Amino acid sequence: MNLKYKLTKEDFLFHQLYSANHSKTIKRNALNGQIALIVGFTSFTSVFYLIDEIFLVYFSAIFSVLIILMFPFFRKRALKRRLSEYVDEHYVERFGKEYNVQFNEDDFQIIDDTGEAKIKYSSLEKVIELSSHYLLKSRSKGTLIIPKSAFENTDVIKAKLEALSEQLKIEYAKELNWKWK
């Protein structure tokens, strides 16, 4: 099977957002940030309580609750903006370039205008089907992105990837409802 397609900035950003959403480090940093906010605002409110400024206690308590509730929304927006900047900086030369992925007997070959690479099937760790992309994750933490929008009929691709994951006894994860929130 031979696939020819082009990747856009949105494809690279989608992959980065998906990876960030599943990153333990990013989740831990978000939790640490939320804990720091809670401790900081609790300390701040406690100072007002100790100096008997009741109006400021109520004001800072309400303000604290609002900020803590809004933190996840603002954190995700900021992360998406940073990842978009990262994609612009590191992948800009790859936007709109044609990729040719050829599935062979023991490996797949990726050819683009910079060269070619052969990747053995045995190095694959997981195949992920999302609503708009297929992601082939390797043990070396690299990922092959295949956008569904580049093909009229993705049933053949899906069948090949399912057969490949069954043959290799690796996970075929269907996350068709995944969205960056």
UniProtKB/TrEMBL annotation:
Domain YcxB-like C-terminal: 103-154
TM annotation in the entry: 31-51, 57-74
Entries under Pfam families matching the protein: YcxB
Keywords tagged on the record: Membrane, Transmembrane, Transmembrane helix
InterPro entries listed in its UniProt record: YcxB-like_C
Protein name: YcxB family protein
Organism classification: Bacteria, Pseudomonadati, Bacteroidota, Flavobacteriia, Flavobacteriales
